[in-house]
Amino acid sequence: MSDPGHDDGGRFTRHTSDEELLRAFERTDDPVLTASEIAADLPIGSRAVRERLKGLRDDGYVAGKEVGARTIVWWRLATAGSDAPWRDGFGAFADSDLDGEIEALEREVDAEFEADQDELF
After folding, report:
1. Which SUPFAM superfamilies match (predicted)?
2. CB within 8 A of 89, min separation 6: which ones?
C-alpha cells in the first residue's frame, strides 16, 4: 500500500513552505506557540519546525524565548510578511493588488448568493 506523503522508498516527499508554517500564528488567538503546537497541524515534526523557526528568526520573521529547560515559545513579528522570502513564490502576484481583487470577488459572490437565495426562498 502506498502512502501519499512518502515515495516508494518510504522517504517523506511533501514540502512545507515557510508560508504554511507562518500561517500557524494566524490560526490562533494565542500570543505564542511552541514548535510542537505548530507541528500538530503540519506534515513535519516538531524538530523540523523548530529548525525552520530558527531560520525564520534569523531572517527577522519570528522571535522566540526559552521558557523552560527545553521549551521555546515563538511569536510572529509584526513587521514580518511584506518582504518575507516565501512571497517570492507568488511571482507576478508579489507586487499586485491580489488581496484587493480577491476581496472584490468575495463581495461579488456574496451579493450574487444573496440574490439567488432571495429567489429560492
Report:
1. Winged helix' DNA-binding domain
2. 17, 19
List beta partners, residue 74.
33, 64
Task: With H, G, I as helix, E, B as strand and everything else as coil, classify residue 19.
Answer: helix
Burial zone of 26 (CB within 10 Å; 0-12 exposed, 13-18 middle, 19+ buried): exposed
| First vs last C-alpha separation in the chain | 48
Question: Which of 77, 29, 82, 31 has the alpha carbon at shortest distance from 57?
Answer: 77
Are 6 and 12 in contact by the 8 Å Cβ rule? The answer is yes
**Quick one: cell of 81?**
510578511
CA 9/CA 102 separation, integer angstroms: 41
Provide the grid cell at 39: 507541528
pLDDT tens, 66-96?
A: 887 888 999 998 754 444 444 444 444 555 6
Rounded to an integer, what distance in angstroms lies between the CA atom of residue 100 and that of residue 121? 31
* Nine cell digits for residue 22: 507562518
63 - beta bridge partners? Answer: 75
Report CA 82 to chain centroid distance, whole Å: 14
